[in-house]
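Sequence dictates fold. Next comes a concrete instance:
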Amino acid sequence: MILPSIILIGIFRFSPLIFGVTTSFCKWNLLNPRQFVGFNNYLTMFEDDDFWQSLFISLYYALLTIPTTIIISLVLAVVIDGIFTLKNFFRTAFFLPFTLCLAVVSLIWKALYNPSIGLFSIAVRTLGFKSFPILSSDKMVIPGLAIVGIWRFIGFYLIIFLAALQAIPNELHEAARIDGASNFQIFLKITIPLLKPTIFLSMVLSTTQSLQIFSQIFVMTKGGPANASRTIVYYIWQKGFSELQMGYA
């Protein structure tokens, strides 16, 4: 009964994985046959300053997005779970950005960040401040991209936390209130401990999504300015499909 699934997983998951691992020991430019070079690609990687830079940028992006996304999603879930009206509206409104194609989201935010006609720049100038190009600043480009990722994924984790909150028995909260516990104490002593598995799951998913960032980089910055937003996945793509060093990629 599970043989069709095993076959599909083997074709579309394990065979590309095996092919990728074997290719990493070869020199291959997609045009000529693969040439075995042993561990040369790995030795080159450890001596590649661009690799370490892109890895650091990816970790920096993840450090900005993971805790912020989880905390905001959890707080919003607790607030929405506690209201009785418009709960479905808020749940749908926050989840809607996650349903959009990431390339479309990137184009929208690229327009918002435009230093001349972008909404953010217009708002800053209206308040009397001088606007600055977020995507053209090597110090602001990663925080600017992180805002896009946080905005898009908040709704996804919001739904996860709402489902987990609704699974917590109301009797626990009622008993705590009878004993004189405040809402903050209930949240800290009851809600958070019971949500630990969900929080852990959300952190794992968020880490995976953060380290796999590519579409936003490709659409919004192309790794710039001066490679300040070149994450590890974009660097892999650059080496493989732009420079045709597929074995090293």
The two ends are 38 Å apart (CA to CA).
